[in-house]
Amino acid sequence: MNPATFQFLAGIVKERSGGVLTADQSYMLDTRLAPLLKRENLPSLDALAMKLRSPAAGMLAQEMTELLTTNESHFFRDGKPFEYLRTILPELHKARAAGLPIRIWSAACSTGQEAYSIAIILSELQDAGDATWKARRFEIFGTDLTKVVVDRAREGVFTQFEVQRGLPVRQLMKNFQQIEGRWRAHDRLRAYMKFQQANLLHDLRGFGKFDLIFCRNVLIYFDLPTKARVLNALTAQLAPDGALFLGAAETAMGITDRLEPIGGQRGIYRPAAQAAPVRARA
Amino acid sequence: MTISALVVDDSTVVRKVARRILEKHGFSIREAADGQQALNAVAEDMPRLVLLDRNMPVMDGIEFLKRLRETYGSSEPTVVMCTTEAAQDRILEGLEAGADEYVMKPFDEAILMDKLGMVGLGPEGGDAG
After folding, report:
1. Are A177 and B88 inside 8 Å of each other by CB?
2. Residue B53 C-beta-side C-alpha neighbours within 13 Å
């Protein structure tokens, strides 16, 4: 592929999704766009770029953008954090007074796959649980820097491609309805959720306290001081017995002393214990 | 560890694409062009995985699947349907007939391997790392 072609295609993706494609991801264009090239009868990505320069190519540009950006968000991404979620939610349910909501923040929600994955687990736990589970109120709060993806998350409608990434077909059948070839999350899942555009570098205190915070694969885009600032700001919004979920390749160690790892759980942290004695003395 | 797979599709192009992806991930492949051929292949040697198209001449994927489960029970082989039939009721029909997972065409390597991971046959299934 011509380097100018990569720049051009990456520019379209950035303009439409806010997502940044780096040169080391150029392999992804070959694998992801191969079916599109075949369907459009195009011999190469250079030929695709040529076609996209036509003013009538808006649909094609959108389709390409979706093929290249859905990679960043799929259902039950990395698996393990969601297994831990199934463990920690019953503990939180037991620890919280009836009537208090359990609040979960998907702090970089992108198009919503993480938030809907959490909602699927909540609905399964509520279905299997006793009356106290059914009476418990849960709130999932999704935020992202980019307005277009927050709008999509709120809409809760996913393409055929998106619902095949990470989501087992039985959970798709149970939780989504097909409308004109796309898949819309059931109202039951949507009832848990609120979405809002937000910048993690701004004041987060207005969002209130959360029992669980997911902030996965975001810190990698920040420099070290910004990582510390965001981690400390998120920790300030976290319940003392809550948990912060980072990406599998991300760490809080050496960046802030306000978090400590939860044993055996890669990328999952709780507020450091030192906070408690300080409060006890006060 | 090699996992044996039977790719059932009347399109030689689809069989070739599936073969290329699966062989890359260490599967050993046999092919069948319709449900009857697939039944013969299963009788000869039971594969761990059947990747199954729906619309085929002679015997379609649903009929094959029903006969497969009637004859051999529901525990083996793992059946992943792979078809352009993406309507919700069609998917439910496939699951009721005994499919374990469902791939809606067009598919790529990421989707196929992701789906195989969900039924315990993905790269993570055989890899301790």
Report:
1. yes
2. 26
